[in-house]
Amino acid sequence: MMNDGLIEEVTGLMRQAAAELILPRYLQLETHEIDTKTSPTDLVTIADREAEEWLTPRLMEVLPGSVVVGEEAASADPSVLDRLSGEAPVWLVDPVDGTANFVEGKREFGVMVALVEGGLTRAGFIFAPVENVMAIAVRGEGATLDGEAIHGRKNVPFSEAFGDYSSKYVKPPLREHLSAAVLTSAGTSQKHCSAYAYLDCARGQIDYVLQFLMSPWDHAAGGLMVEEAGGALRFLDDGAAYHPVPRAPRAALACGDAEMWQTYREAVT
């Protein structure tokens, strides 16, 4: 299903959405163009909404018979998530991942798209507009960044590992436990952007990512990116591999080296 022509069409749409609808509002947002959803810190902007509305029909057009589950559409109507249980191929869309960073003028935000079929992520795309880099992962074919193969770092002990972890949404007592555990690694960042967390893990800039909120548009593309770069994304409680289905919050660990995943799991649990 995922051929070079379709990849080119999808990446072209992502670049166009960023160039025409997202970047023109970077550092230029007006107060009335910023809104909240579930809480005062759960932000959405005019760029999020317009980019998703623009991408949705075009993604369905490049793959006839497919449907779209977008973050903003699902926020407005949770029944949109039911499409993940249907027979049709599903495009998962996060039009501006890292919206708070986007609002604050930080560079760590991205456009994420994933193609899901039969409960598996078949392809994942992450575009970082400010950095102007495109990462692509196709199941069984590896991961690339601007056409060059990328790989996670290998054989890094947890004590020497760098990670991405934010305790913001983690519930006690797990929050206190994970926050203490990551102190035994070499360090963590809190970029508050899944697109950058997974991309940095896949390209070997960090070694692990700890996640808790499991909205599928936040993890499908990045999880496959890490896997195809030689890593793994699995749940901490039972070690099950991540699959993009609607689910309650649940701690998950991505590791840039699949062979080290269990070692890292033991270090944080």
Automatic annotation (TrEMBL):
Keyword set includes Oxidoreductase: no
Any GO BP: inositol metabolic process
Key words of the record: Magnesium, Metal-binding
Highest taxon, organism lineage: Bacteria
Residue sites binding Mg(2+) per the record: E71, D94, D97, D218
UniProt xrefs under InterPro entries: Inositol_monophosphatase-like, Inositol_monophosphatase_CS
Cofactor: Mg(2+)
GO molecular-function terms, A-Z: inositol monophosphate 1-phosphatase activity; metal ion binding
Record carries keyword Magnesium: yes
Pfam family, one: Inositol_P
Sequence similarity: Belongs to the inositol monophosphatase superfamily.
Protein name as it appears in the record: Inositol monophosphatase
Species for this entry: Parvularcula marina
